[in-house]
Design brief:
Elements: H1 19-53, E1 62-72, E2 88-97, E3 104-106, E4 109-115, E5 118-125, E6 128-130, E7 135-144, H2 146-149, H3 155-161, E8 163-178, E9 182-197, E10 202-213
Antiparallel strand pairs: 1-2, 2-7, 3-6, 3-8, 4-5, 4-8, 5-7, 8-9, 9-10
Length: 214
Amino acid sequence: MAEYDQIRPSAPPTPWLNNDQEVLVSRRKNSYVIFIVVSLLVVTTLTLVILYFTAFRVRNPTTFVNSVTTVQLPGFLGGNSTVPNANMTIVADVSVKNPNMFSVKFGESDTMVTYRGMEIGSGKAPGGISRAWKMVRMNITIDIIPSKIMQVPEYLTDFISGEYSMESFTMVDGHTKILNLMNKNVEIDMNCSFVYDVTKYITKKAVCISRIKL
């Protein structure tokens, strides 16, 4: 019997697309690309909006005055200091809460004390780190110069009334890194007011307000 070569079926021919079909396929590809690009833009926009209302929306710190202690008191204010013209030394125990989602590192800062608009003393606030959503506690030591108090025309009137109303201003310079990407300089202003009671030899009615600037 004669042997015949086995005939294998050939592969089906590749279908060719007409012009209309090619245009349809091209449009579908373009639609997928446009969809992906639009989706990325929407996600990026939403991310920026969320960051604006969270990371980039700066909230002012909340300051609490825990206590104010008079360490040294000159004789004319009811103290028994034996040092001539001794300064009045006050230590304020203050807590500052950082309501932002970034930490702030700050250095030592100066405090200015005024009485009826006249500078009468100064002090130092220590440096440190204010963690995100945390509270930092610090002691601010203030030295008040008695001779400058007596230069104020209303000094005797306030002495007779038994109270001296004073104010302090502290400006803190620091820096922060938002989302570990952007380095920003930070300025924190802390304004405090307090009253010294001559009859009881205590400092009272201490209130502080803080503001932060990026």
